[in-house]
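Why does residue order matter? Because the sequence determines the fold. Keep that principle in mind as you read this record.
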Amino acid sequence: MRKLFFGVMFTTASLFGLAAHAEQPAAAPSFEAGKHYVELRNPVPTATADKVEVVELFWYGCGHCYQFEAHLKPWSEQLPEDVALRKLPALFGGLWNAHGQLYLTLEAMGAEPKVHEAIFEAIHKQNRKLATPGEMADFLAEQGMNRNQFLQTYNSFGVKSAMEKAKRQAMAYQVSGVPVMVVAGKYRFDLGSAGGPQRALELAEFLIEKERRAR
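Structure:
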């Protein structure tokens, strides 16, 4: 009887122990400076002083950027009000610059997100390079945009100024490839250092919270 009593007690305690363990929340992701992200020695001013800014540097021609978009888009649609996501084209010359100028032109024109998605699809699924202003204008006309307005804006002083600003920002972020994310102008990381697309978004959230606590 004594053995049976202690056996029942042991079994009951084990069950309670398992239940308690199951109810514990999952551990928060652990990230380290110098390993998963770089803390910039000279923080870069952000465009939104009242919000935590998250910048994604990208290139339309980058396959990893195209694949990351499937993760980034739904994540961005659920961001809290105190966080702002901003895309910034990386300008490393040649086709990078042409596509960067394309993005900044569309931004100046207030193009809808579906146009940017169509560009990614055209380049990576339809093998359309969109390498010249004429090719870009023809493609955008297919998307319902005004061809002449695009060409005028593409060659405008405002877009050329935005190009120079984008180049300076990328240099300040010390970026050499894409896709790269920068949080609050202070913390830089890429998909490799973060551990993949999903981990990159978890790292972004970790750094957003870090910035909130610092304010």
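The chain has one domain: 41-214.
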